[in-house]
């Protein structure tokens, strides 16, 4: 298949498809061009590779990107945190407590007394009162199933707003000696330390 061509069943394809004569997307004769900010340092090669592939996929559907490579030390504070970007790549750690830990990432920005905007950790600046309410209710809910239902509702609304789009989960890599068992990458699971140990030595 074509890289980036996958879409869930029932999703309408862009009019004209890739390489359409319709040209780039735009409005009133002005093409849509998104500022794509990426760090330029030697430790960010993988991020730039992902960014280049995203730009190529967007180009196939008529969305232009202007990739701006900035110094690593300026990337987050001067661009992501300050909102000086249209597209940017960064990651958040996942936890087993989304009702409290994910709330500031999606909280609706509020105006401050000095005229600035309080965004907490919501650097996309996209949020709604309803999503805030769902997080607050989920954090206070004692019934686990009811809390999960509230978070599922919040999740659906966050996806609909599309302020940020999770692309992939980074793998957790743990090196373990061959004779060690039941140890490794646990994710959100609690390790059962009583099950961790060594294999029985082979009898010669």
UniProtKB/TrEMBL annotation:
Residues 10-25 have a biased composition (Low complexity). SUPFAM superfamilies: Periplasmic binding protein-like II (SSF53850). One of its GO terms (molecular function) is peptide transmembrane transporter activity. GO terms for biological process: peptide transport. Residues 1-26 are annotated as: Disordered. PANTHER family: MONOACYL PHOSPHATIDYLINOSITOL TETRAMANNOSIDE-BINDING PROTEIN LPQW-RELATED, PERIPLASMIC BINDING COMPONENT OF ABC TRANSPORTER. This is ABC transporter family substrate-binding protein. It comes from Streptomyces somaliensis (strain ATCC 33201 / DSM 40738 / JCM 12659 / KCTC 9044 / NCTC 11332 / NRRL B-12077 / IP 733). The lineage of its organism: Bacteria, Bacillati, Actinomycetota, Actinomycetes, Kitasatosporales.
């Amino acid at each position: 298949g074509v890289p980036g061509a996958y879409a869930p069943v029932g999703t309408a394809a862009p009019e004209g498809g890739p390489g359409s004569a319709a040209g780039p997307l735009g409005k009133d004769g002005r093409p849509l061009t998104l500022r794509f900010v990426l760090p330029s340092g030697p430790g960010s090669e993988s991020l730039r590779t992902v960014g280049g592939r995203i730009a190529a996929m967007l180009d196939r559907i008529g969305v232009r990107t202007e990739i701006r490579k900035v110094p690593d030390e300026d990337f987050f504070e001067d661009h992501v945190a300050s909102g000086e970007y249209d597209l940017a790549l960064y990651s958040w750690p996942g936890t087993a407590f989304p009702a409290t830990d994910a709330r500031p990432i999606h909280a609706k920005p509020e105006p401050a007394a000095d005229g600035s905007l309080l965004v907490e950790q919501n650097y996309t600046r996209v949020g709604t009162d309803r999503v805030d309410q769902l997080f607050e209710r989920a954090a206070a809910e004692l019934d686990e199933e009811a809390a999960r239902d509230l978070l599922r509702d919040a999740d659906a609304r966050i996806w609909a707003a599309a302020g940020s789009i999770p692309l992939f989960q980074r793998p957790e890599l743990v090196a373990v000696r061959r004779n060690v068992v039941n140890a490794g990458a646990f994710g959100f699971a609690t390790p059962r330390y009583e099950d961790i140990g060594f294999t029985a030595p082979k009898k010669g």
